[in-house]
Amino acid sequence: MNTTINQLPAQGLVKLSQLLGCRETNTPPIIPVSRATFYRRIESGDYPKPIKLGQRSVAWRVEDIRELLTKLGGQ
Known about the structure:
The chain is an alpha+beta fold. Helices cover 40% and strands 15% of the residues. The protein contains 4 helices and 3 strands. A 3-stranded antiparallel β-sheet has the order 1-3-2. The model has no long low-confidence stretch (mean pLDDT 90).
């Protein structure tokens, strides 16, 4: 999973399509779960909550995602 951690920018925010991958842009997933599973795990407290950017836009802090990947066995 080290390569997935290296896919993340050094700092900032990441969108869901960057985390779960996107077929249209050929982006590989960093966290290989479905969108529904990802949101279920947010609700259960296993995954970090997003930051609301606008009415229909959210993102996650890179630091929170790095911590999650480490917790999941990334390093």
